[in-house]
Amino acid sequence: MANKASSSSVPLKEDEVLSLYLYGSESGWVEARTSCDHMASLSSDLAHIPTPDTPCNRCHHPDENWLCLCCKDVLCSRFVNKHMLEHYQQRNHCLALSYSDLSVWCFSCDAYLDAQVILPLRPVYETAYILKFSEPPPFRTVEQLHLGDNQAEGSSSGN
């Protein structure tokens, strides 16, 4: 759940690289996947989620908490007491949304996911954003998404 750039990573296969949407990787941003095979594990009711200021269900720590997108438990990050990581290891609930920056992480894919591109994630991302900022998120347009794809293709071809 940490910034992928700060953790060791396994080299990606060519087909995995093609499935990534690049978020300014030259400036140190992380790469978010535009697909994930684990969407079937999403909770069926992500329209009703705990608020972003909810403390960890186990240690009650108020910061760096994640929402399990499979069962809606709120648990702290690996930088606090590792309760979300333990939850994944014990229950195999692999999808989580960070209440700090609203990023979505898949433990099984070991990757961030683009919640604006992966349609099943958009509603929970929008709900969390509204709960955190009291306004709807500024979703990227189709044109911006295609521009990003073109930039990703250009960076992978050396342009």
From TrEMBL:
<dbReference type="GO" id="GO:0016787">
    <property type="term" value="F:hydrolase activity"/>
</dbReference>
<keyword id="KW-0862">Zinc</keyword>
<dbReference type="InterPro" id="IPR013083">
    <property type="entry name" value="Znf_RING/FYVE/PHD"/>
</dbReference>
<keyword id="KW-0479">Metal-binding</keyword>
<dbReference type="GO" id="GO:0008270">
    <property type="term" value="F:zinc ion binding"/>
</dbReference>
<dbReference type="Pfam" id="PF02148">
    <property type="entry name" value="zf-UBP"/>
</dbReference>
<keyword id="KW-0378">Hydrolase</keyword>
<protein>
    <submittedName>
        <fullName>Putative histone deacetylase 6</fullName>
        <ecNumber>3.5.1.-</ecNumber>
    </submittedName>
</protein>
<keyword id="KW-0863">Zinc-finger</keyword>
<dbReference type="InterPro" id="IPR001607">
    <property type="entry name" value="Znf_UBP"/>
</dbReference>
<feature type="domain" description="UBP-type">
    <location>
        <begin position="34"/>
        <end position="135"/>
    </location>
</feature>
